[in-house]
Specification:
With 335 residues, this protein is α/β, with parallel strands linked by helices. 44% of the residues lie in helices and 18% in strands. It contains 15 helices and eleven strands. Strand 9 (258-265) and strand 10 form a beta hairpin. Helix 2 (28-42) runs antiparallel to helix 6 (151-164), helix 6 (151-164) runs antiparallel to helix 7 (174-186) and helix 6 (151-164) runs parallel beside helix 8 (191-200). The longest helix has 19 residues, at 316-334. Bound molecules: manganese (II) ion (MN). The site of manganese (II) ion has 6 residues, from loops.
Length: 335
């Protein structure tokens, strides 16, 4: 067993009170990881509390146990802190800004699959080749304690893998992902429940909002993009995660190699960038590195998917054009 894995197992089994943390705007992978761990730890009679910086999207209301995730951290005495699906405290800044010193003093374990450096303390179980944190958690915890596994835990981890792989559209290591998923299904993971609730079901309002985003689509060089202003969400009574459905849809449009969803949230312009996997000849020329682009623009993550934020200034539409131009220039100079 990997050294960090046995250390993590030891730390978890010896802790009585554990605080679990997810990232800003928790997604299916983050939520699945937290709640899967919840069931596993509960079976080991641990006292566990769950914290996320902001409320999960309504999209996840169907998940049993979602109400356990609290947004106000209590700063109580915990033996162990566990972070899932993020590395670096900045992705949960709303929680940490109050007392960052608290987090630096506690024993901690991080399970993650994002690019970037970890906390300067604690145990890091990170695998950037994995499609999802739930996959990493499954691989480790199933080796540690297979006897605790049940249908519910398997469904939580299946949900995370489904979510981050876009229902198996984006995974790269097919053998690994499908091997894990097959094990989860054999353990009782409810695929129909996840597919129906997470992948298929949409509110009429979110489809109407999609219409708005589609009406605004523009293409510049290899980049297809659309945008919205936060205020527009209120009219449709949907949240940012529901609005992100537009990104999934425009990703399927044939032609451009990158898609971008831009939104103005308060004083920040945020962007979600996705690059297509290139095939054949295009592939040999190298891939577009979203992470590099997002880093230059201020942020994170995977090679084919990334997010960024820049301070808003001037006219929204004009700033969008500048960002698009900037990204296109970066891609051109890379190849
Ligand atoms: Mn993830």
């Amino acid at each position: 067993m990997h050294k960090n894995s046995s250390i993590a197992k030891h730390m978890i089994e010896h802790a009585k009170k554990i605080a679990l943390f997810g990232h800003m705007s928790p997604d299916g992978d983050c939520i699945g990881a937290m709640l899967g761990l919840w069931r596993l730890l509960e079976k080991q009679k641990k006292q566990v509390r769950y914290f996320v910086p902001n409320k999960p999207s309504k999209l996840f209301d169907f998940i049993k146990g979602i109400k356990r995730l609290k947004t106000n951290f209590d700063y109580k005495q915990y033996d162990l802190l566990i972070f899932v699906d993020f590395t670096g405290i900045n992705r949960m800044w709303i929680l940490s800004q109050a007392k960052p010193s608290y987090f630096n003093q506690k024993p901690s374990i991080t399970f993650d699959h994002h690019l970037g450096d970890g906390l300067d303390h604690g145990i890091l179980i990170k695998d950037v080749k994995s499609i999802s944190t739930c996959e990493i958690l499954f691989e480790h915890t199933y080796k540690w304690r297979p006897e605790f596994y049940d249908k519910e835990i398997a469904t939580y981890f299946y949900l995370g893998i489904t979510s981050d792989s876009g229902n198996f559209l984006f995974e790269e290591d097919h053998i690994r992902t499908f091997t894990n998923v097959l094990k989860l299904l054999k353990l009782g993971a409810d695929k129909d429940f996840v597919v129906n609730n997470l992948m298929r079901k949409r509110s009429l309002n979110s489809i109407k909002f999609l219409q708005l985003l589609l009406n605004r689509i523009k293409q510049k060089d290899d980049l297809l993009y659309t945008y919205y202003d936060e205020d527009e969400l209120k009219k449709y009574d949907i949240d940012q995660e529901e609005a992100a459905y537009g990104l999934h849809i425009i990703q399927n449009i044939d032609g451009p190699q990158m898609v971008l969803l831009i939104r103005k949230i308060g004083n920040i312009i945020r962007g979600s960038l996705r690059a297509k996997k290139l095939e054949g000849e295009m592939r040999s020329k190298g891939k577009i590195d979203c992470n590099k682009i997002a880093k230059a623009l201020w942020w994170w993550w995977h090679r084919l998917a990334a997010g960024f934020g820049v301070p808003a200034k001037g006219k929204f539409e004009q700033q969008i054009e500048e960002i698009v131009k900037y990204i296109n220039t970066m891609v051109k100079t890379e190849h």
